């Protein structure tokens, strides 16, 4: 569903220009793909491709092209875990380098492309090599010269050869994709996919038998900063191909294809998801700046909610960063007497319905393709599915007004592929899921273009509600992926983590993103039985008959529990009083849960909640939430600790509505990179975030 971002507030760097996409989309946004993957363009195979993703303990820098041109780190050249795409090479501005032995394939003549992601440090003076054969003026060089990115070649002539170069200003401390291209007639220098400098030059390159060097040339022009994703081609890439490299994002491009083999191999290594979202402003009373102010709050909350185990490690890295691209679809002023009103471009399905009326299929139409203004390499306007397939767009947020006759508040919906037990995608069987009001129905799915094969998430943002509500909606998306069996690995462990599962606990189908639909008591527990099942024994309150024995036992063995707020002792006594079992009542069926210690429950129900959206319960509850799959308790079980609302109260100021504070805590408790959770084989558990997004 999912470009490089500079860290903003809470790690989020939205596009805050307040401008919508232009009708004529600039070509550098045209496409995004990789060789061997479906997309708009295919890239030629590189002569060499150094990803810098090798372990930091090794001195080898592997050539990922398959041609065997491996490099060797020396003089302290290091590794940084926070690369542009996974790890990066780290260079200290002095003598660090990666040297690759010379080979005939590196003796290029009249066509080449050098390309790399770089993040230079503050010092840009002098010569700072990125990739080169340039001991004197040997052959070719991509680097920095006195504050400018520079691409140089040497042609035969004179003592050292005849040099030609093109330059453009470099910016310190920011990631940039830099590419130099020579086609036998001209030099071209691209930064972030944009042609920034060109010069007419013709001739055959001077040859050199010296090694190829990354980060130096060979010991006098040390680069200072990070270098990543270095590619060398023996052809001159076209402008569109260079633009494609300059747009490269990870993991978005790869996972946009929902390639489960890729997911299985890489999702535990994902450090940051960088989705791009189209924000469609339908609220005539609010300009894009006003919308962005609201969406920035939502993004900050979602980013904060993606920090793994932040309650244990305040410096934990967030997993999620959005880039927001606003699309202005307002078309009229607000009439007198109205606070808000949606644009006539709002895709109403049945305006006379008087309730939720939204035609999702229209978002995928050519009409909306014109609104989006996203152009492919051949110039045609991409519809939403094409944009998602190309990795240009990953989500759509509909910014609308709920206080009008034809719409009500909604949450999120998405199309996701199904997977078999081996985590391979099952063709032709997408799962459409939704939360709240407004879902993909059969007609919506049937109306989608045939090329809609990727995961697509659509979120509806109520312009009067805050960040907690959208955090809540995002949580339902995660919950649905786990509970609907979309991906076996995720499904199994998520059902352990969010253990309020009607199917396994009560033998009832889980057919709602709501863990227990509070508006449909016949489909779930009545409130009294639910109270009993979760040991929410509010002393002094009326208890259902099935709870009376447990309550009496608790009072007999721990009188203080009948007069004071419940603590872990009281909860444990409640379990002991029922023989380690808790009774429940579903309709005419009765049964027991044995033994019952909740994990992290659901979006609607914290472990100690008394009901839906209850995030202020003073009761204490024993829970394994913070120790999920850590096996750090007696007998190798997850440690049981008292859970209280103080765990997530710190987040209430960030996401104050819709139980947003609880949801953020819940998201942070999921297994992810760097925590101690272990799978059945004792290995670190795979990260759940890519599963939930892709």
Annotation keywords:
26 strands; eight-stranded antiparallel beta sheet; LamG domain protein jellyroll fold domain protein; alpha+beta; 15 helices; ConA-like_dom_sf; signal; disulfide bond; Jelly Rolls; 694 residues; LamG-like
Structure, explained:
- The chain is an alpha+beta fold.
- The protein folds into three domains: 44-236, Sandwich (Jelly Rolls), CATH 2.60.120.200; 263-488, no CATH class; 493-693, no CATH class.
- Strands 1, 4, 5, 7, 12, 13, 14 and 16 form an eight-stranded antiparallel beta sheet that branches. It has an eight-stranded antiparallel beta sheet with strand order 2-3-6-15-8-9-10-11, with no helix packed on it.
- Strand 12 and strand 13 form a beta hairpin.
- The protein is globular and about 85 Å long.
- The N and C termini lie close together (6 Å).
- 51% of the residues are buried.
- Mean pLDDT is 74; it is low at 1-40, 249-259, 502-548, 563-568 and 574-594.
């Amino acid at each position: 569903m999912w470009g490089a971002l500079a860290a903003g507030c809470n790690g989020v760097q939205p596009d805050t220009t307040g401008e919508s996409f232009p009708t004529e989309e600039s070509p550098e946004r045209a496409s995004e793909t990789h060789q061997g993957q479906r997309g708009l363009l295919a890239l030629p195979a590189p002569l060499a491709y150094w990803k810098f993703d090798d372990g930091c303990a090794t001195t080898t820098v592997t050539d990922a092209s398959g041609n065997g041109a491996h490099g060797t780190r020396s003089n302290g050249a290091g590794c940084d875990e926070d690369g542009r795409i996974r790890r990066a090479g780290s260079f200290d501005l002095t003598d660090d380098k990666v040297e690759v032995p010379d080979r005939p394939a590196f003796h290029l003549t009249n066509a080449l492309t050098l390309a790399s992601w770089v993040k230079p440090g503050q010092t840009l003076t002098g010569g700072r090599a990125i990739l080169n054969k340039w001991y004197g003026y040997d052959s070719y060089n991509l680097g920095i010269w006195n504050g400018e990115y520079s691409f140089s070649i040497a042609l035969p002539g004179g003592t050292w050869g005849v040099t030609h170069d093109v330059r453009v200003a470099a910016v310190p401390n920011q990631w940039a994709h830099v590419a130099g291209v020579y086609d036998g007639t001209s030099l071209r220098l691209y930064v972030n996919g944009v042609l920034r400098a060109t010069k007419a030059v013709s001739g055959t390159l001077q040859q050199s038998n010296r090694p190829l060097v990354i980060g130096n040339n060979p010991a006098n022009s040390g680069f200072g900063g990070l270098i990543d994703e270095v590619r060398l081609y023996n052809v001159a890439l076209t402008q569109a191909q260079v633009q494609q490299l300059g747009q490269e994002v990870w993991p978005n491009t790869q996972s946009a294809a929902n390639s489960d083999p890729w997911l299985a191999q890489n999702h535990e290594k994902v450090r940051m998801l960088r989705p791009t979202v189209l924000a469609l402003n339908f609220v005539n009373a609010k300009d894009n700046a006003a919308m962005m102010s609201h969406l920035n709050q939502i993004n900050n909350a979602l980013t904060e909610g993606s920090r793994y185990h932040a309650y244990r490690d305040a410096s934990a890295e967030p997993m999620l960063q959005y880039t927001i691209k606003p699309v202005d679809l307002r078309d009229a002023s607000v009439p007198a007497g109205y606070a808000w009103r949606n644009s006539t471009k709002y895709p109403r399905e049945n305006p006379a319905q008087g309730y939720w009326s939204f035609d999702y299929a229209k978002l995928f139409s050519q009409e909306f393709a014109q609104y989006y203004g996203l152009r492919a390499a051949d110039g045609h306007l991409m519809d939403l599915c094409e944009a998602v397939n190309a990795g240009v767009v990953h989500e759509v947020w509909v910014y609308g007004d709920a206080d009008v006759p034809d719409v009500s508040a909604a949450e999120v919906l998405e199309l996701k592929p199904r997977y078999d037990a081996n985590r391979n995608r099952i063709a032709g069987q997408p799962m459409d899921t939704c939360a709240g009001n407004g879902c993909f129905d059969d007609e919506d799915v049937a109306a989608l273009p045939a090329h809609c094969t990727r995961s697509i998430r659509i979120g509806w943002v109520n312009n009067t509600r805050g960040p907690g509500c959208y955090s809540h909606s995002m949580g339902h998306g995660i919950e649905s992926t786990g509970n609907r069996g979309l991906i076996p690995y995720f499904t199994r462990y998520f059902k352990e983590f969010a253990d309020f599962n009607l199917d396994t606990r009560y033998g009832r189908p889980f057919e709602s993103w709501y863990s227990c639909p509070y508006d449909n008591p016949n489909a779930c527990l009545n409130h009294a039985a639910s109270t009993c099942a979760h040991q929410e024994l509010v002393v002094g309150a009326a208890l259902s008959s099935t709870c009376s024995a447990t309550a009496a036992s608790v009072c007999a063995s721990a009188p203080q529990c009948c007069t004071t707020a419940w603590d872990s002792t009281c909860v444990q006594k409640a379990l002991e009083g029922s023989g380690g079992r808790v009774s429940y009542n579903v309709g005419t069926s009765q049964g027991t849960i044995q033994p019952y210690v909740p994990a992290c429950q659901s979006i609607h129900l914290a472990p100690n909640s008394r009901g839906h959206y209850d995030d202020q319960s003073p009761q204490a509850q024993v829970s394994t939430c913070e120790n999920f799959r850590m096996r750090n308790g007696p007998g190798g079980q997850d440690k049981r600790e008292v859970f209280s609302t103080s765990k997530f109260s710190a987040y209430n100021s960030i996401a104050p509505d819709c139980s947003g504070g609880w949801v953020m805590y819940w998201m942070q408790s999921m297994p992810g990179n760097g925590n101690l959770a272990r799978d059945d084989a004792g290995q670190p558990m795979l990260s759940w975030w890519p599963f939930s997004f892709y």
